[in-house]
């Protein structure tokens, strides 16, 4: 069985407008109420056990790492959702991890040739489902802004130092 999902907007404004049982009704609604550039009708299969674990159409898996000031330090397209090696990671999408790299500082006692590893600042590391690189960065940046505004940068969640 299929349903027809009418979507509109882009990036953080992307949303579902309506859901229909026929394509004709969805097309009519889209032409009447959606913006010309961003409105579209998507055909989604439902009640199909073979789709268990599948991601929404048109999205890809992305990993983004971002500093507190919004500087992007790493992006990577992880592959096409539905790929066998990505399905087991489905629960990781949207989960926050905090990474902190150790920067070697001159001075201080011992360690390696007079250098002491000092922890650098925490970076936000997230896996997201997005249309493209810019969309992935936008999603993570919105989460970054929420965390900074709530004074929760580097607090809780999983933390990794390397």
Describe the structure.
The chain is of the alpha+beta class. It has two domains: 2-51; 60-161, no CATH class. It is 20% helix and 38% strand. The protein has three helices and ten strands; from the N terminus they run ββαβββαββββαβ. The chain has helices at 23-33, 84-87, 133-149; strands at 2-8, 15-20, 40-45, 60-66, 72-79, 96-100, 102-106, 115-119, 123-130, 158-161. The strands form three sheets. The chain has a five-stranded mixed β-sheet, with helices on one face. A hairpin with an 8-residue loop joins β7 (102-106) and β8. The radius of gyration is 21 Å and the shape is elongated. The relative contact order is 0.16. Mean pLDDT is 75; it is low at 104-115.
Blueprint (SSEs and pairs):
Elements: E1 2-8, E2 15-20, H1 23-33, E3 40-45, E4 60-66, E5 72-79, H2 84-87, E6 96-100, E7 102-106, E8 115-119, E9 123-130, H3 133-149, E10 158-161
Helix count equals 3
* Inertia-based shape: elongated
Low-pLDDT stretches = 104-115
* pLDDT averaged over residues: 75
User: Order of strands across the widest beta sheet?
Assistant: 5-4-9-6-10
Rg for CA atoms: 21 Å
Total number of beta strands = 10
Number of domains: 2
Distance between the termini: 48 Å
The helical percent reads 10-25%
Beta-strand percent range = 35-45%
Query: What structural class do you assign from the helix and strand content?
Result: alpha+beta
Could you describe the largest sheet, including whether it forms a barrel? Answer: 5 strands, mixed
String of helices and strands: EEHEEEHEEEEHE
